Amino acid sequence: MQIRNGQPSCYVLKNKDLELPSKGTVHLELDVLFNPVKACLRTFLPRERRLLEDNRKFSKKILARNVERVKRITMSLWNTIQFLRNCFLWESPVRSLFAFVESEKKGIRERIYMVQDIVITVQNLLEDLASFAERIKNTFNWTVPFLSVLACVVFAVATIVLYYIPLRYIILLWGINKFTKKLRNPYAIENNELLDFLSRVPSDVQRVQQAELKPYSGSSPFRKKRSTV
Questions:
Q1: CB 86 within 8 A of CB 92
Q2: CA separation, residue 117 to residues 78, 120, 124 (Å)
Q3: What span, in angstroms and rounded, lies between the C-alpha atoms of 67 and 62?
Q4: What was the pLDDT predicted at 16?
Q5: CB 3.0–4.6 Å: which of 103, 203, 205, 220 could bond 131 by disulfide?
Q6: How far is Cα 153 from Cα 130, in angstroms, rounded to an integer?
Q7: CA-based angle 75:78:84, to the nearest 5?
């Protein structure tokens, strides 16, 4: 997140959780081509999807971390989360037992897979909910100054537009744009500009994973490899 054009940097390698340091460092010098105008416009468009998506599996550590994040961000939704947690983590035996005996035709292996899929779904739901709330918080905390400045500019422009143009005209233009989008561009991807913007803001977990660790004192200085012709 702090990369600079042509600036040599030393990065400490991390473990598989991207939280603690591991053995070794890597020295990089990168050429960064950055256009602020294009970056602002691209922020409100959907992010590129990975060609290879990660196959998420159930993890007690991830589940516990997501529950803790949700509890820390908002307590108003805790009652709903607690209901789901009681249902799928056997804290309410009657409710969990009912999920097992729901269909007598299903084998025990299919029931285990069914409960496992439900737990993974709840785990991912908690992660998405916590990430959404943390991204809103980090926008106002100026975690990424470029995105926070862009949000302030958008709010200022929206205030000026609302002052001079009646709200009904703005809603009319917005509706025409949404309903004619497919006619003007059949291959256009449906998107939500607000969600696309928030997807660029890192959550608390991503901040830890993307944080740069200080190099070890004994790390070697940056060296350039010269290519021989």
A1: yes
A2: 22, 5, 11
A3: 9
A4: 85
A5: 203
A6: 26
A7: 165
Please give the backbone phi and psi of residue 101, each rounded to the nearest 5 degrees, phi first.
Answer: -95, 20
- Are the C-beta atoms of residues 198 and 148 closer than 8 Å to each other? no
Q: What is the CA radius of gyration of the chain?
A: 24
> Is the separation of the CB atoms in 26 and 213 below 8 Å?
no
Q: What is the pLDDT of residues 87-140, one digit of tens each?
A: 566 556 665 566 555 544 455 566 566 666 667 777 778 888 888 989 999 999
pLDDT of residue 163: 92
**Residue 115 near residue 99 (C-beta atoms within 8 A):** yes
DSSP 17: T
End-to-end CA distance of the chain: 35
Taking the domains of the chain in order of start, what are their residue ranges? 1-53+144-229, 56-142
* Strand stretches in 94-221, DSSP E: none
Phi and psi at residue 27, to the nearest 5° = -105, 125
Which residue carries 């500009």 as its tokens?
Answer: 193
163: left (phi over 0), alpha (psi -120 to 50) or beta: alpha
